[in-house]
Amino acid sequence: MNALAVALGGALGSLLRWSFSLLLRRVDAPLFTASAATLLANIAAAATLGYLMARPNPDARLQLALVTGFCGGFSTMSTFSWEALEWAKSGSWLAAFSYVAATLVLSLGAAAAAYALANK
Questions:
Q1: Considering its fold, how many domains does the chain have in total?
Q2: Interatomic CA distance for residues 74 and 41, integer angstroms
Q3: CA triplet 61, 43, 47: central angle to 5 degrees?
Q4: Backbone phi and psi for residue 57, each to the nearest 5 degrees, phi listed first
Q5: Which tens digits make up the pLDDT trace of 83-116?
Q6: 48, 56, 62: which is closest to 16 by C-alpha?
Q7: DSSP letter at 12?
Q8: Apex CA 32: angle with CA 26 and CA 36, to 5°?
Q9: 2 sits in which H/E element
Q10: Are the C-beta atoms of residues 31 and 90 closer than 8 Å to each other?
């Protein structure tokens, strides 16, 4: 049952992340579109994780579904890394650095803010 909880949460998180890329396809710069979708997904996943981790006495199976499954499927370190490398390979070092910095700062900030909000 635990594996099913993680799998269902992961499927929902992955579908939501994919939806972000579909919503942003209207931008004419493909790498920008992909990076923006990944950035937004990672920030939202970090905020969700921060909120969920602050909740007292969570149900273990629900925690697996939401934290490990949903947040794990919704966020993506591998795609983030690849997109940063693509920016760098194209010679856009400032864009690559800005993307990495924005992802780290905004994701950590979102997690901290959501954690603080949940503890009020």
A1: 1
A2: 6
A3: 45
A4: 50, 60
A5: 999 999 999 999 999 999 999 999 999 999 999 9
A6: 48
A7: H
A8: 85
A9: helix 2-23
A10: yes
pTM of the model: 0.89
Give start and end residues of each alpha helix (H) in 24-118: 30-54, 60-63, 72-74, 77-89, 93-118
Cβ atoms within 10 A of the Cβ of 16, count?
15
- At 86 the pLDDT is 93
Predicted pLDDT at 24: 77
Query: Residue 44: which domain range?
Result: 2-118
Report the alpha-carbon distance of residue 58 to residue 36 in Å, rounded.
32
Q: Report residue 76 as tokens.
A: 């993506």
| Three-class DSSP category at 56 | coil
Q: Which amino acid is at 67?
A: V
Which tokens hold the place of 16?
Answer: 């939501």
Q: Are 117 and 49 in contact (CB under 8 A)?
A: no
